[in-house]
Amino acid sequence: MKFVDSVVIHVSAGNGGHGCTSFRREKFIPKGGPDGGDGGNGGNIWIISDLNMNSLTDYRIKKIFHAENGQNGFKKNSSGKKGEDKYIRVPLGTRIIDIETNEIVADIQYKNQKILVAKGGWHGLGNTRFKSSTNRTPKKNTKGSLGENKLISLELLLIADVGTLGFPNSGKSTLTSMMSNAKTKIDSYPFTTLHPVLGTVKKKKKNFIIADIPGIIQGASSGVGLGIKFLKHLSRCKLLLHIIDINTIKKKNLNKIRYIILQELKNFNKSLFQIPRWLIFNKIDILTKKNVNKIKKYIKRKIHPCQKCYFISAKDNIGIKNLSKDIIRYLYKKNNIHKYF
To answer: What family is this protein classified in (predicted)?
Structure first.
């Protein structure tokens, strides 16, 4: 199924029902007073978060949403029924934007969060409302008002505590699947991952969400490859894991490999560049122990002493347990954990 993270929808709240003009006509009461009831309010349109959704795919085709109109009033002072509200379910991380004003209406970040996006019309008044000491037989009633009509943009920015980034085939998807419950597609060809995948990592009573996005290549921030489309999904992360295939360091300079990714982050969004990053050197299973130790010494000479780095094999589950523990310790110590579980 195609991953959709941006749609425009039209929402139309219900109109208010009209008030009724009516007079009592009962036996032995020849001059009954007014008994016209009010109309019902129009239905509202709400957007509500749904933990079971992870994309806006449902709205790729269905883009128009109507709430029910309020009923007109009846005789015998009977009010019309209120129109039923319409609920539009979206995944956590959805940003709601009013296209006409370009205003951000809301940012959906919590479970069961409910946002009113179009208010139903107000009910009209029946002629009973206009009875007075000077007007015993009012024929006046009022019409219900129109419900709001709006064009709404829904933009999904996935909510994750930790995000992975790196070149294609660096092992991001393998790491995500080993650490979490994510079911990511894994293969040896570039861009195996075609859309972001979320997974939940659980350690005893603590947990966090990790996001795997398609690989980034040089020029991603200007539209090359798949990275530009999905870099925005890292913007809510509190920590980024920069995955590097340790075997590529033999062929390329380490700083050059790091610089390409960092420059793409900076070009795309400076705030994304400022998110803390840990270096994760993957695929140590391919090297001999002697070569691993040799490369470790080289790497530690090249990076800043304060830079956190890990040496792992995602495929063989080497170093994953310690990495997960350190991530949980970091997130909970900083209180940088999403509280919607």
So the answer is: Belongs to the TRAFAC class OBG-HflX-like GTPase superfamily. OBG GTPase family.
The angle subtended at Cα 326 by Cα 320 and Cα 331, nearest 5°, is 125
CA distances, 188 to each of 171, 193, 281 (Å): 10, 11, 18
Question: Is 15 annotated among the ligand-binding residues?
Answer: no
**Residue 93 annotated as part of some ligand binding site:** no
Give domain 162-333's CATH architecture. Answer: 3-Layer(aba) Sandwich (3.40)
Instruction: Locate the domains of the chain by residue range.
Output: 1-156, 162-333
Task: Give domain 1-156's CATH superfamily.
Answer: GTP1/OBG domain (2.70.210.12)
Whole-angstrom distance, CA of residue 272 vs CA of residue 288: 36
213 labeled binding residue: yes
The answer to the question of whether 285 is labelled as a binding residue is: yes
Is 168 annotated in a binding site? The answer is yes
